[in-house]
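Tutorial handout. Part one gives the primary structure; part two gives the three-dimensional structure as tokens.
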Amino acid sequence: MNKGLKRALLLGAIVISAGFAFPVASIAQDDDDDQYDSIIVTGAMLRPGGAQDIAHFRSVSLDGEFLPPSDSLTVEGLLAEHDLTLPRRKQCEQLFCLVGHSMAAAIPLRPQDEYFVGLDFDSNIDADKLKAEPISVIAVVDRSGSMSGEPIENVKHALRAVLSQLGEDDRMGIVIYGDDTVVHLPVSDVDGHRREIDHAISSIEIDGSTYMEAGLRLGYETAFRELDKSNGKTRLMLFTDEQPNVGDTTAEGFMVQARAGAERGVGLTTIGVGVQYDGDLAAEISSTRGGNLFFIDTEKDARALFARDFRNMTSEVASDIVIAMTPPEGYAITGVFGVPADMLTETQEGTVTVTVGSAFLSSNGGGIYASLGRDASRQHLPPAPLTEGQSMLDVQLSYVDAKNGTPGHDRIAVPGPDASAPEGLQAAMALVDQYLALEQALDAYHIGGDEKAAFALLDGLTNRIENLGLPGFENEIELIGGLRDRAAYMSGYTGEIPGELRPLALVGEWEVTYRKGMSGIARGDTVELTEDGEFVTSQRRDGSETYQEFEVNERQLRLHPEDGEDAEPTVFAYRLNGDNLNLRTRGGEALISLVRR
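Part two.
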């Protein structure tokens, strides 16, 4: 959907996160050790992360676009929205401990999978003590033209939410960038200066282009100067819609800065904002050691995010984490879900290694998930039998304590399926099923042009998810059901357009059949409602045209006066019946009846 239609639909900012599901069959042999992402720690548990949600995908799935592309749908983000904690088998007595469970695989789009294995993480960490450590926050704020309006206001709400979480030993500073890059607020103690910090937040104004390279550079310089003054840790927090257009705009250029900052003890949290946000660049920057990525789209979301996760997202626990998974003889790891592809390597013996850079506190439990199937030697044979007590997966873990540099290790043998699979593992497999089916359905629609195939995939997924009866899946049922209804309409299985898509049905050319109380429009005139939010009237009498802007939601159409006029917009309730459209003001003073041309 183009930006004009997004504006016309009055539907606010969207949310994005980045992540991957990765089939092991295409794992590259990669000896590059400079691969980093984040594992997320929750309370006394750890989980792999990077993407923290699929809020962007949920947003575009519920706006005016018939079916969204799959670009912003990520398996990490989907998994991270749910608490998928697995039962502990023993008490953890170190920073990182492995927890493993398995079950028979039942993923319709992956019939080759025999088993589904979940790796969760436990810890003896005192999360409250870690979160209480003082922090210096240097906010780097994009104030370029693309951030005007709601995005910059949401950044201000977010900065105030950050300020509300800071205590008497914490410090805060603000760097802003647009055409110019300046230290807007020198780093200072929060205690005794809250009013001044709040005033500095309020006074941020929009300024031209997006020189993000310079913004990050000055941000890091400010953070490095703060290291000796901070009462604890120091973290950069970048607020941006990721639209750099000045200086070095490549991901590698920004990652060089992020890596150098991490080496000196300054991590980077990226907060995405804005309707035009494109998270690909942010995902790469935040994949460096010490990096993580979140998104906000409303004032309410900003408050909720920082109230829930501020101390988590700024609390790095460990680094240089390596997880090696080895399947039993006769089996191969056929898929790994929850980590980006460039974090995986595979040996000829079938061991798959995940290498990640940092661990942070988080709100949900969960882990890495692997599917197992027959290896190449048994492609035409039954699955290899597993003897009693034989492990389903041998897993080794190594890491470095982020606070004191002490190395640590753990190792477990994941047992075969229990009589009843843990609820967290069932939920994780259902979410992987959801991710795969959504991705294939949306690609069938956008790439293959096959509406009926998209509907069949979404219809089957709807039935599976609803029949599982798992707690906490209400949002998934709403999401999948809404997409299914749209696909049913698009494929001709129902003639009733879903309510949230009604605004799209107004786009097109119409002929005026009746009008009352409206000047500048007459019977027989042609009206075109464009995707860019323009209401174009072509007069039959002399061929002249007038251009007005309009905005529309599910119930009302707001028609603005022509440029230069000071009158208030005219608000119509509208009724669409087949090829007939009626616009009527609340008191009935104005009425326009149209028929589609």
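Part three, for discussion. The two ends are 23 Å apart (CA to CA). The domain at 134-314 is CATH 3.40.50.410 (Rossmann fold).
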